[in-house]
Amino acid sequence: MIPYGRQDITEDDILAVIDVLRSDWLTQGPAVPAFEKALCDYTSASHAVVVNSATSALHIACLALGLQSGGRLWTSSITFVASANCGRYCGAEVDFVDIDPGTCNMSPAALEVKLRQAKAEGRLPDIVVAVHMAGQSCDMAKIYALSKQYGFNLIEDASHAVGGSYRDYKVGDCRYSDITVFSFHPVKIVTTGEGGAALTNDAGLASAMALLRSHGITRGPELMQGEPDGPWYYQQIGLGFNYRMTDIQAALGSSQLSRLDTYVARRRELASRYDRLLESLPVKPLSQLNETASSWHLYIIRLDEKFERKIVFERLRDAGIGVNVHYIPVHTQPYYRALGFDFGDYPNAESYYSHAITLPLFPGLNDRQQDEVVEALGAALVAAR
Ligand SMILES: *Cc1c(COP(=O)(O)O)cnc(C)c1O
Questions:
Q1: Element containing residue 194 per DSSP (H, E)
Q2: What are phi and psi of 328, to 5 degrees?
Q3: How far, in Å, CA of 43 to CA of 37, rounded?
Q4: What are the CA-CA distances from residue 78 to residues 101, 121, 285, 322, 324 (Å)?
Q5: Please, are residues 289 and 103 in contact by the beta-carbon 8 Å criterion?
Q6: Cβ neighbours around 131 below 10 Å, total
Q7: 185 phi, psi to nearest 5 deg
Q8: From the CA of 37, how far away is ligand 1's center (Å)?
C-alpha cells in the first residue's frame, strides 16, 4: 500500500532523540527552548510556545485572546474538527464561513458578506480561525484587513502549512495575524510524534500561552503577588493545563526542522509532477494564488461531476493506493448538527466534499510510485464513469 502521507525519520533524528534519553532532562529541559528558538529563526516570529498538539495550541491561543463563554469563533467548514472545537472548549459559539471553490480555503468574499450581516445583528465574531488548507495560505492580507475593519482577532491554523509562504513571508511570521498554529503530527510536514506550536509577535500573548501550557504556574517573581517565599517557590496565578511538549519530542522537532526546506522542495516537485501527469484526466487540482507558495501537505483533486467518488476511492484503495478524503464538512458532523447546523448550510464546502480525493504525497514518494498512483487513477476513472 502506498500511504497518502508518511513521516521521514533519519539516523540524525534518532541520534537527537537518543541524546535526550541519555541526558538529565526528558521534559522541561533545554531541548524545548532550543526548538522554540529554531521555529522563531525559521519563521521570523518573535515568540514560539511549543505544546503537545496543535489542538492544545489552538485552545491556549483562543484563551490567551480572551475567548470565553458567550464569545464567538468563526472558521472554515473544510478543515479538521480541531479548528472549530477550540472555540467550544472555551464555551464560545462556533460558526462557519463557506470556502472559495478554487482554493478550498475560507472565501474572503463570503467572510465579508457574513461580517456585514453580523455587524447589523450585533453578532460579530471575537476570533476568526483561518485554515491554510493543504498547505496553501489563505489570502491573509484580505482577511487581515477585514479583522481591522470589523475588530476581531485572527488565528492562522497553519497545521498544514509549515514551510509554506505568503507573499515574501514564511507562514508563521504572524504579519497578518495575532497567532499562528503549527501541527507536528507525523502526517504533517515535520513531526515530533505528537506536538504543536503557537507563534506570535506579541510578548503578552506569548507569556499568557506559556502559563496556560503549564497549569498557570509561574516561577517569575515579576508575575507573582507579593514576594517569593524562597528559591523553591512558585505561584499558580491562573488556571492552566499540562499541555507541555517533552524534550524527547522537541529534539526530534529541531532535527526535523533542519530538513524542512528539503521536504517542501520535494513535495513541490511531486505536486508539479502530478499537475503534469493529470493534465489529460478529468480531474482538477486545487487552484493556487499567485501570492502563495504551498508547503504541499496534501495533493487534492476534485473529480468531474459525472464520476462516483466512492467508486473511484474504492478502486484506488483496492489497487493499493492509500487515498483519503480531506475533509468532511465540520458543520455536518453530528456534534455540530446537534448545535443547529445542517446539510445545505455551506454549499461550496459540501460540493467540494462530494468530489474530493487526496492522493499520496510525501517526501519519500518516488516517481515510480507516483506513476503507479496516476495509472491506477486513470483505470479507476474508467470504471467509475
Ligand atoms: C492536524 C490538524 C489539527 C490538529 O493537529 P494535532 O497536532 O493533531 O492536534 C488542527 N487543524 C488542522 C487543520 C489539522 O490538519
A1: none
A2: -70, 130
A3: 10
A4: 11, 25, 16, 21, 14
A5: yes
A6: 28
A7: -65, 150
A8: 22
Q: Are 292 and 102 in contact (CB under 8 A)?
A: no
- The segments of the chain whose pLDDT lies below 50 read none
Q: Which atom of ligand 1 is nearest to the CA of 83?
A: 11
Cβ of 213: how many Cβ atoms within 10 Å? Answer: 24
Give the distance (Å) from ligand 1 centre to CA of residue 18: 27
Question: What is the model's pTM?
Answer: 0.98
- For helices 367-383 and 260-277, the axis angle rounded to 10 degrees is 40
Q: Which residues pair with 183 in a beta bridge?
A: 196
End-to-end Cα distance, the chain: 24
Question: Cis bond leading into 299, ω under 30°?
Answer: no
Model pLDDT, residue 213: 98
Q: How remote is the CA of residue 183 from the centroid of ligand 1, in Å?
A: 6
Q: What per-residue confidence (pLDDT) applies to 133?
A: 98
Q: Spell out which residues line ligand 1, taking CB within 6 angstroms.
A: 53-55, 79-80, 82-83, 131, 157, 159-160, 183, 185, 196
Nearest CA to 359 out of 280, 285, 288 is that of 285
Radius of gyration of the chain (CA): 21
The secondary structure of residue 100, as a DSSP letter, is: P
pLDDT recorded at residue 385 = 81
| pLDDT confidence of residue 384 | 85
Long-range contacts of 107-115 (CB under 8 A, 24+ apart): 107/348, 108/138, 108/139, 108/142, 108/143, 108/146, 110/348, 111/74, 111/143, 111/146, 112/146, 114/74, 115/146, 115/149, 115/150
What atom of ligand 1 comes closest to residue 58's alpha carbon? 10
Cα 290 to the chain's mean position, in Å? 21
Amino acid at 179: I
DSSP three-state, residue 47: strand
pLDDT at site 233: 97
Q: What is the dihedral of CA 60, 189, 293, 260, to 10 degrees?
A: 110
Other CB atoms closer than 10 Å to residue 274's CB: what's the count?
A: 22
CA atoms within 13 A on the CB side of 173: 17
